[in-house]
Amino acid sequence: MPEPRFASVDDVAARLTGVGYIASDAIATTVFLADRLGKPLLVEGPAGVGKTELAKAVTEAVAGELIRLQCYEGVDEARALYEWNHAKQLLRITAEQGQAWDELRTDIFTEEFLLPRPLLKAVRARGETVLLVDELDKADQEIEGLLLEVLGDFQVTVPELGTIRAERPPFVVLTSNATRELSEALRRRCLFLHIDYPDAELEQRIVRQHVPDLSADLAESVVRLVNRLRMLKLRKSPSVAETVDWARTLIALGTDDMTPEHVRDNLGVLLKHQDDIERASHALEL
Amino acid sequence: MTAPPADAPTARLVAFGRALRAHGISTGTSDLVDAAAAAQVLGYDDRERLRAGFASALLRRSSERRLFDDLFDVFFPSALGTRSVVAQDDPLPPAEDAAGRRARAAALRDELATALARRDRRAREEVVARTVAILGRLPKDSTLGAYSAAQALDLLAPQTAIAAALERAQDAGIDVPGGSGDGSGGSGGAGRGLASRFRRDEMRSEIAEFRRAVETETRRRNAEARGSERIARYAVRAPVDQTSFVLAGPDELAELRRAITPLTRKLATRLAARRRSGRGAPIDIRRTLRRAMGTGGVPMRPAYQKRSTSRVDLVLLCDMSSSVAGFSRFTILLMQALASQFRRVRIFGFVNVVDELTETIATAAPGADLSGNFSDTARMTKWHSNSDYGTAFHDFADQHLDAVGHRTVVLILGDARTNNTDPGLDALHTINERAKAVFFLNPEPARQWSSGDSVAHLYSDIVDMHECRNLAQLRHFVARLLPV
């Protein structure tokens, strides 16, 4: 059993706070468990609640290296796992004209000609590593099969080289916006964490952490406004990031209270669709 | 090696897992092992952390969360017995007769209003406990236990406490955010006035929370009397996946809305799936010869004709009659979501005459509640207001057949109950022949098909009919059954 990264749930919360990520109790508990049980963490939730930020914060909290695999439609083995450096292999072959084929063959399939991609890099890494597989739902189903070996046993098999096993399993975070159902096999290997919009108290702490100049009263007003907007059925509800942007806007405006005029004129900071803005101004009677 | 005998917490966990499975959340043995490991690491001291730990090990998707929480409360109650806040010597008359109960309800409502006005969570919790203990107590024990949340909430009518709470907050000046209070909401800073405008809406959601808390507390009390497993079987709500469209309430509809949008996106991509260019396509002579220039006129690399992306059109034909009212709320959701995903979708509604609804739906704001728009079905009815599939199909074949081409997929949504009129099979044949595919989604369970005035079997001979009662079945339809 490798050395655990965190001593307790409170330790997780404290260290995440130390690097500027205020975690709810549920988040801290799940991160703690992911570390203790040595399982990857699958994070789902609406856009902008800090899924990717969580991975970055954990990296900073354990003073490790972040290896990120950004998924997109069509991401494949060569982009995710490893690739042979063909150009270099060709050079090698032409440089050694006289060599016997058998020698050459074993020669050009060595570490030297291997281009590690994020997954292999994470498995081979020596020190403390956090592997972030971002927006997994954007990738095709096939890539999940590829991940199973990496996530289940923290190893990668390269046919020419054999199986490479991680010395110290990386802390793995997968994020998904749930635009596609992930396969059961993958879900089973992970601990599941759903991050929703934070409750009012937590969100106030987050806002004040990011915008220390903001007064407590104003922070409360900001969060109440955002929560009210989330209650409306909007196309895109304001996320935590937008709450923070809104707080910064108020600071930039140099105001110490939030008037209907301010809200009306700057609603674009919080809402990104014209019809959302119209609906919100109507509902809030601005 | 023999396994150690199961201790009490493990047995509890296994029973919990069984209850989850009985409600359709697939938890394997390995998940339970993870949950047990989580419990071992976390300990049983902090209940909320234990809940988070179990959730991370046992849950696979967020739609199952509500059911999980309900069952967790049943199997791992916060405590046993009556809460200490329920006073033994109450000055009010015992709640035996109706008048007594009303007096108790009024007193509790008053306390609730005060708790709301002061935004005092603890006081609210106390009201929850006493509401269940005093108002929820059934005169006779039912099979599900001695307490009823429905009865308690009926008597208390918590939503009526909002007005009093607002008034009280105004008087006390508590409504000012921050609580330090420089004047009442009106005369304070304008910004505070703005935030305090939300108070009413905030209270509304606090009342919703209160209702949920009463339900949880009731389950806790009943589980104690009747055993967790029995309560788990009957007294928790099904997850939104399994909720029948017909029975969906407003809360569930909001959840459905969230779940449907990604599903329609998937439907759109599946229907418009591009074929890989080149595979099976004829050779493009001109471009092949042109390429051959580079290899001295020898055509080494053939070029294939590019296939145009098949743009599948979608036609929706929906029964909007009142007999499928619950289903048509869902239908409208689906129509809205599809209209935002497909470039070319045409939507028709019918009761017994077909009317095109595309305009209405496409121009409405996304997320808007359109159910009101279709309650007036005048344009979809003629002579009588009962649904008549035969006439509607004939009408569609006569008036709108040009909407259907060889690339069109037609989705018919309805219960196939045609009130003993002519089913109009030949018209459906006509539509089926012209379309690429026709699917019939029926909100009734398959065992009720063809009972009474349903002609489901006649239709299912002509077109593919699928039971589509809940989100899980719709998901299955989109993912598995729909041919590309």
Biggest β-sheet description of chain B: 6 strands, mixed
The geometry of chain A reads as elongated
Helicity level of chain A: 40-55%
Q: How many β-strand stretches of chain A?
A: 9
Distance between the termini of chain B: 52 Å
Instruction: Tell me, briefly, the overall form of chain B.
Output: globular
Number of helices of chain B: 19
Structural class of chain B: alpha/beta
Strand content of chain B: 5-15%
Structural class by helix and strand composition of chain A: alpha/beta
Helix content of chain B: 40-55%
Write the H/E string of chain A, N to C: HHEHEHEHHEHEHEEEHEHHHHH
Radius of gyration of chain B: 30 Å
Poorly predicted tracts of residues of chain A = none
Quickly count the helices of chain A: 14
Straight-line N-to-C gap of chain A: 59 Å
**Most extensive contact:** A-B, 50 and 48 residues
What value does the Rg of chain A take, in angstroms?
24 Å
Number of separate strands of chain B:
8
Question: What is the typical, i.e. mean, pLDDT of chain B?
Answer: 76
DSSP strand content of chain A: 5-15%
